[in-house]
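Appendix B: complex inputs.
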Amino acid sequence: MHSKSINTPTLICLIALICTNLIVGCAAPKIEPSTKPAKVMIHHFGDLSGPYAAITASAVAGFEDFSEWFNAEGGGIDGIPIDDMFRDTGGKLDAALSAYAAFKESKPYPIVTILYGSSESEALRERFVEDKIFCFTGGPSPAAIYPPGYEFSLVTSHTDSIGAWIDWVTGHWAKKTGQPVKLAILTWDSAFGKAILVPEVKDYIKKKGIDLVYEGVFGVRELDVSTQMTAIKASGANWVYDNTAAFGPKVVHQAAEAMGMLNHDLYNITPGLVHRATGLVGTDESQVNLSGELAEGAVGPRSYASWAMPEVEGISMAIAAADRHNRDVSQRVLSYIACWAALYTVCDSMNTIIKEQGWNNLNGEMLRAEMLKLNDYQPFGITRYTFSADKPEPRDAQIFQVQGGKLIPITDWVKCPDLRPSQYQ
Amino acid sequence: MTELLQYIANGFMVGGVYALIALGIVLIYKSTSVFNFAVGHMMMFGAFFCWTFIDAFKLPTWLGLPLCLIGGAALGLLIERLMMRPLIGQPILSSIAMTLVVAYLLGGIAMAIWGVFQRPLPEFLPGGTLSISGVVFSIELVWSFFLALAIFGILALFYQRTRTGLAMRATAEDHQVAQARGISVRNVFGLSWALAGMVAVAGGILLGYQLGVSQYLSLVGLRAFPAVLLGGLESIPGAVVGGILVGILENLVGGLINPWLMDITPYIVVLLVLIIRPDGLFGLKRIERI
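Resulting structure:
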């Protein structure tokens, strides 16, 4: 049988037709998506299966509850609901980098993300600057937010926080008791724990007339710090400050109690006893829950209202939301509250951009610019955000004390001293 | 002088906990030649069992604690039957790698069941401190120390005075010879894992009491590795001595030299000891005749 074949001119025409279609198709102008999206996606990633899972889990719970409230009662972003996309990094840097790579490719182009850990915040700092994506981070590491870029801290830094405590202990406690402050710093042997062992803090301690009599660390897996506490006893310290979280303060409280040194009464100046202070992250309901009576009387700086302050509008809203979702005590902690405040601030800023400049101008660059305008901004009274181009972190805190198992403020809002890395001051 | 004694006392107390964890590793290695990397996660399960029975289910302590031990034995048996037994006859590296898999599996299961939040254990041990000539002892750590000694004593009696213990010692020497003598090697493996599970649970409860119950507890298991290597992988007395030695050394270094060195001291000591005695202080030197 004689088979038919395509003759040459027909073949040439066919190829030309295909090529023309391809060229025209690629060159065709992209159809612009509707400027008002169906939802506004807010991305967040953090450790939900590794060492910091407890902190992140509470923040994620806060995110979910806030989103539900904001979409139902808060009006959304110009009427558009927010939605979240979370990625678990397991506390691993490579997972965080992979999560970022995926996040950056999401459609529409991301505007904002929230991070919860210091290490991923540091690792992704430059990426956010290059990609012009705004990031609000719960990891207040100087390496993450300095030099100032697109990452803003949603808590006061560890250094500024201890600075606020130093101001209180010298300006109030030392004056009331007539005692000089003899400080022992005993903290985690990690980047987080040692964030306060920097020259800026030590210089400030010296400047305020505090005698730093002991400086030591203990491992995150340490069972007992009685050895360090023995040395602290020998040093004559009357305050022990740690920059740890969750069970870290408990380990120190226990050792002080075991050595018969733990002083629960703030104005008791019996020699040989120590008062306890914890850092920003340790001044948290989870620490109080874990430590129980051991934590009574301990003080610490904190830049958010506590769950024991229902008179604060944002706290009563958070309590109502947490009750609706049956959140247990382990979820009603600092990170839940911080997430509410941070999200509301971001959403409010987005609404402002849309109102003044339209949806087309809603991007990371504009969001950053809007956030820089915040000066003593108080999202439902939960916290105070003031940001500037040279200091993208809050600068107000209160000193809290554990009283009856609750965190109660013992000062009004105070301005933290500026203890940023000296090259950025 | 009081400070020196205090550092030594601290070391004894903490060393007791290391010894407890190390016992769990040695029990399995002695019978099966497998280094159990999942010991930390088994301890974590123990702490979660305790929280579940006593706090969540509100069982009385006298019932909850024995149930925890039964749970630990069951956990050990399950691991042996489902994960380790299929690897009998395979290269030993497969079994060791399987314990790593078990560790990750237990971590995931714990997260799925109990979530990621930290919880305190209810206080069922008498708290407070004991002071002897100016040296202060934390009651909770005293309990850990004496519990480790008690478990060591019970295990020593078990291995020396019971037929089952003798069978386990025979299996540890040579699986084939033991089998030839009619000893069920598989049953011995199961029993080893069950015992190790109970010891791990006991350790986990004490650790959970100190640190609270959370995923973190699994990391504490790593602190016992220097104790095991120092004492000898096959020696139960070695586990106890190794644990206490590690505890004392790290506390002495931390107190007298620099607290920043506490974490690495055990590893430096192990390195030095293994150079001189590769089998550990009490480990058995194996001589193979060709």
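Chain B has twelve helices and two strands.
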